[in-house]
Design a protein that fits this description.
This protein is an alpha/beta fold. It has 15 helices and seven strands. β6, α11 and β7 form a beta-alpha-beta unit. It binds guanosine-5'-triphosphate (GTP) and magnesium ion.
Length: about 325
């Protein structure tokens, strides 16, 4: 049997396919974006450069919350509601197995069963390699591809573990924090950082015997939010109750997001935030690359460990050690 090589798509074919809503080509383009092979990166950027559209009207929603808070279940319910009003939805989902083991994909896709069969929905597990919570700067590039493909709403799921929500904050318009009922006690601690970047909080699983405690959590969070400076002037953050299981509160949350989009577009915050995010991504990538190049330069790699030893033994100061590395970098 002869080995048949798959025809490699040209950049033109990629761009055409993406703009035409071809999911298969979309998936291939995202794989290129996620790849760290230099030839893949080059092609990915040739494609991306032709897919940019700063005038698009998409809404990017970040959904964050602790593991098991009900993010995926909620996204499925919200996604189905959005599809029903005639909009196309892309979901960049955390794949639970890939977060845990760096392994297989499609776990969450299997979970969002009803949503994934909708023709106007695109679900893709995010490549979390090396990033806590499942969101990396590459997710931003994937968002841009989804927009070129004409998706109206892009939902990014991320686990709130302290860092990922900062990353997601740099690429979405609206952040919804999902909290389990009864977790209000933690308000004083780690949740504050996450609360600061939330545009709304939803108490999940507000059904059955949890309904009462969900009401209490709501008051706790409302009080908590009042103590935190507002994120966007002119936007009052709400705490809403939802049960994805019973389908309650989802329409209300979508309305809140739509209202946010209208308000922020009108007062200019929307565009300003998106420009700021592009600026951040630009510098983040430049710094990442420089760092990688610095430490992989043979002259630096060759002396790094011994310079570190000298620093640790007090022979030279950390300052001199760092400058020694810089000298080596510059000399070669
Ligand atoms: N009672 C009730 N259970 C829910 C609801 N939403 C989700 N669950 C359950 O909570 C569990 C976790 O739900 P997921 O949607 O997978 O949570 P997640 O936040 O995406 O979890 P990770 O992605 O693993 O961090 C599942 O067993 C769901 O069936 C809800 O509205 N009510
Ligand atoms: Mg999930």
């Amino acid at each position: 049997m002869t080995h048949k090589r798959r025809h490699e798509l040209t950049v033109d074919e990629f761009v055409e396919g993406i703009r035409g809503g071809n999911r298969n080509i979309m998936s291939q383009a995202i794989t290129l974006v996620e790849s760290s092979r230099p030839d893949h990166e080059k092609r990915a950027h040739a494609i991306l450069d032709r897919c940019l559209d700063t005038k698009n009207r998409s809404i990017r929603i970040g959904i964050t919350g602790s593991p098991g808070a009900g993010k995926s279940t909620f996204i499925e319910a919200l996604g189905l509601d959005i599809v029903r009003v005639g909009l196309r939805v892309a979901v960049l989902a955390i794949d639970p197995s890939s977060v845990r083991s760096g392994g297989s994909i499609l776990g969450d896709k299997a979970r969002m069963e009803k949503l994934s069969v909708e023709p106007s929905v695109f679900i893709r597990p995010t490549a979390s390699s090396g990033y806590l919570g499942g969101t990396s700067p590459r997710t931003h590039e994937t968002i841009l591809l989804c927009e070129a493909a004409g998706y109206d709403v892009i939902i990014v799921e991320t686990v709130g573990v302290g860092q990922s929500e900062i990353v997601v904050n740099s690429m979405v318009d609206f952040i919804l924090l999902l909290m389990l009922p009864g977790s209000g006690d933690e308000l004083q601690g780690i949740k504050r950082g996450i609360m600061e970047i939330a545009d709304a909080v939803a108490i999940t699983k507000a059904d059955g015997e949890r309904s009462g405690i969900a009401q209490i959590s709501r008051s706790d969070f409302e009080a908590g939010l009042r103590m935190i400076p507002e994120k966007h002037p002119g936007w009052q953050r709400k705490v809403l109750l939802t049960s994805a299981l019973e389908g309650t509160g989802i329409g209300e949350i979508w309305q809140n997001i739509v209202e946010f989009a209208e308000t922020m577009r009108k007062n200019g915050t929307w565009d300003r935030q998106r420009r700021e995010q592009l600026r951040l991504l630009f510098y983040t990538i430049a710094e990442d690359r420089l760092k990688r190049e610095f430490f992989s330069r043979p002259a630096v790699a060759a002396i790094k460990d011994s310079v570190e030893q000298q620093v640790l033994s007090g022979e030279i100061s950390p300052f001199s050690g760092a400058l020694a590395l810089l000298d080596a970098f510059r000399a070669h």
